[in-house]
Amino acid sequence: MNITLHPSAQIDAGLLCGHNVVVEANVRIGLSCQIGHGVIIHAGTQIGDRVRIDDNAVLGKLPMRSSRSATTTRAELAPCIIKDDCMIGTNAIIYRGALIEDGVMVADLATVREETTIGPFTIIGRNVAVENKVEIGARCKIETNAYITALSTVHDDCFIAPEVTFSNDRFLGRTLERFKHHRGVTMMQGARIGANATILPGITIGADALVGAGSVVTHDVTDRMTVIGSPARERRPVPAEQLLEHQI
Predict the structure, then answer these.
(1) Disulfide: which of 5, 30, 80, 105 matches 87 by Cβ 3.0-4.6 Å?
(2) Residue 108 is assigned to a structural domain of this protein
């Protein structure tokens, strides 16, 4: 084991640690954690019990802010918090100001930005990008290469398939007018989105609604309704046996 440990860091019993690990000031690592090779844990990060952090992960990274950044602020950020029984994959990056609740898995190569909350037992899949100022609820599943844009809200028990893209800027980066309409996507409880769908800014996907694969969603989706196409249009109610209330 080769670890560079700041004197103010606190490590509880049972740590298994790889080589070339850096733990900065005021970090806390709970009981029985496992840390792979090359992990960097930035100042102030708080890690709960039984957390697994794989090789080359970075926790508590400070955001970079360009003079042209639209949603990144200079505000002081709270420490990165990783609660109990989480798994953080290889090369994953979790920024300062992120809150990762109990039992979350953040898979290899995923990024979770600042001022973002991930609810209990949610899965953030491989190479998923969760931008800043996002709220994701409990028991969600967000699959490989999905893009969750800033200012979005995903409520409990939602499913987002691979390659889904959220958007938040109707003006595509042009004119100051865009900031008056800058809004992410909202998914209500139990909503589902199929692979390669694109959701336009400010759209709400209703509770238990279903967006078909490859759809382009330009209007709000009614609760418990299936929409398909480009632009997406209502086709039929979600089958009763698929509704969240009928799942075990």
Answers:
(1) 105
(2) yes
| Opening angle at CA 209, ends 204 and 214, nearest 5 | 85
- CATH number, domain containing residue 224: 2.160.10.10
Q: Indicate whether 42 and 103 sit together in one domain.
A: yes
> Domain for residue 126, yes or no?
no
16: Cβ–Cβ under 8 A, 6 or more apart, which residues? 33, 34, 35
Domain that holds residue 234: 140-240
Calculate ∠ Cα 218-221-227, nearest 5°.
80
